[in-house]
Amino acid sequence: MSFSTENSTTVWRQSRILYIMRRTDFRDWPCSVARTAQLLGDHWTSLILREAFYGVRRFDCFQGSLGIARNTLAERLRHLVGMGLLAKRPYQNEPTRYEYVLTEKGREFFPVLMAMVVWGDRWLAEDQGPPVVFEHLPCGHDARPQMVCGCCRAPLEARDIRPHFGPGYPRDLAALPGAQERFAPPKSTLQSNSRGQEPTCRE
């Protein structure tokens, strides 16, 4: 089944037993999209991370640049620290004040923000053009981020992607008929594999 197939809605109805759709806590769902959406929560979380990549570290600076309510900012910072994307460390004593710095986990969120930039520049910038451009310092050109396959380096397109069970998918759920149908390979793939045709990867 293709990732973008029109039958996906039908399959979801058939496999609704997998999870109760009314649940709002996605941390235990076997889906990285759902888990990441749970982590982000709302637009403020992404904007706080954007400011962190711009070099903002202190509470008052976050509040001043975003115009966010202080209680909302405090809650979002606690959330990001709790999820391990930011680390809280003191920079002043008497009284103690803290700054918030990106962790390794937080720094690796950068490609997600850049993917949002690419999509927003294409579909939301209108005639004015991109509001912000990002220079790639090693080459000196404006960056044009592109998601590619780590194996063959071809651009990733939804029509070329097929999801299948990963090692983290619960075995009891994977055994259900709805899940089996949802992730079943298309017939064309089965025919291709039966002829011994394999994709070429560039190491």
Protein model, in words:
This protein is 41% helix and 8% strand. The chain is mainly α. Strand 1 and strand 2 form a beta hairpin. The longest helix has 14 residues, at 110-123. It is globular. Residues 14-18 and 193-197 have low confidence and may be disordered.
Break the fold down into its secondary structure elements and pairings.
Blueprint: H1 8-14, H2 32-40, H3 43-53, H4 59-66, H5 70-82, E1 86-92, E2 97-102, H6 104-107, H7 110-123, E3 135-136, E4 141-142, H8 171-174, H9 177-182, H10 187-194
Antiparallel strand pairs: 1-2, 3-4
Keywords:
two-stranded antiparallel ribbon; mainly alpha; 4 strands; 10 helices; 203 residues
Specify the overall morphology. Answer: globular
Helix content: 40-55%
Low-confidence parts, pLDDT < 50 over ≥5 residues? 14-18, 193-197
Q: Name the structural class.
A: mainly alpha
Number of strands: 4
Helix-strand pattern: HHHHHEEHHEEHHH
Q: What number is the mean pLDDT?
A: 83
Gap from first CA to last CA: 28 Å
How big is the Rg?
A: 21 Å
Tally of helical runs? 10
Strand order, largest beta sheet: 1-2
The major β-sheet equals:
2 strands, antiparallel
Strand content: 5-15%
